[in-house]
Write a structure and sequence with these properties.
The complex is a heterodimer of chains A (about 110) and B (about 120).
Chain A: E1 3-6, E2 10-14, E3 19-21, E4 23-26, E5 32-38, E6 44-50, E7 56-58, E8 64-68, E9 73-78, E10 87-94, E11 102-103, E12 107-112
Parallel strand pairs in A: 2-12
Antiparallel strand pairs in A: 1-4, 3-9, 5-6, 5-10, 7-8, 8-9, 10-11, 10-12
Chain B: E1 4-7, E2 10-13, E3 19-25, E4 32-38, E5 44-51, E6 57-58, E7 67-73, E8 76-81, E9 90-97, E10 107-109, E11 113-117
């Protein structure tokens, strides 16, 4: 069985400061991990994905995440927050085969001017 | 990249009526599609897995007779909310895997359908 825990339901940062959204996972086998972003009343957009290649994954809009197996973590970071980054972020784990994705509960990122 | 569309994007219906939501994979064939429901300020909840040419697999607690899923072709899955009630008002999102390029088990999401039942 797989699960994902997003450690913060809400993160607030000032514009231009670093962003850290935390995610821990649990999986019986080597997982694929994803971060998705959702703006209000919109669908999901893939930010980045880890699929057992490089442990440091770079995504769109300056985001990146590091897969740490020893810590079972996949935290999302960005060096400098922009107002347009304000949204809901979901950490997601996928198992083998055609199994459904498992979503974290989401972290709402607020960016203060 | 792979694109998934949903139609309609927004629908209002009266209590007791039925509403059909379409999910299409535009540039790939999807043997499996997924339907999610999202309440305000909450995460996505998987409702069912839709398999082309066979019956959908519903998650525990999801009423099969209320949420009818049909996956008649490799590019189309439909979700019909029957006898809708105000508590069915929600944001419904579908997704699909591209079996050709989806080796990373990535799913492509539709833009969602906002259902409001009055």
């Amino acid at each position: 069985a797989q699960s994902v825990t997003q450690l913060d339901s809400h993160v607030s940062v000032s514009e231009g400061t670093p962003v850290l959204l935390r995610c821990n996972y649990s999986s019986s086998y080597s997982p694929s991990l994803f971060w998705y972003v959702q703006h209000p009343n919109k669908g999901l957009q893939l930010l980045l994905k880890y699929t057992s290649a490089a442990t440091l994954v770079k995504g769109i809009n300056g985001f990146e995440a590091e897969f740490k197996k020893s810590e079972t973590s996949f935290h999302l970071t960005k060096p400098s927050a922009h107002m347009s980054d304000a949204a809901e972020y979901f950490c997601v784990v996928s198992g083998a085969g055609n199994t459904p994705l498992v979503f974290g509960k989401g972290t709402r990122l607020s960016v203060i001017a | 990249g792979a694109v998934v569309s949903q139609h309609p994007s927004w629908v209002i219906c009266k209590s007791g009526t039925s509403v059909k939501i379409e999910c299409r994979s535009l540039d790939f064939q999807a043997t499996t599609m997924f339907w999610y429901r999202q309440f305000p300020k909450q995460s996505l909840m998987l409702m069912a897995t839709s398999n082309e040419g066979s019956k959908a697999t519903y998650e525990q607690g999801v009423e099969k007779d209320k949420f009818l899923i049909n996956h008649a072709s490799l590019t189309l899955s439909t979700l019909t909310v029957t006898s809708a009630h105000p508590e069915d008002s929600s944001f419904y999102i579908c997704s699909a895997r591209d079996p050709v390029s989806g080796s990373s088990y990535e799913q492509y999401f539709g833009p969602g359908t906002r259902l409001t039942v009055t």
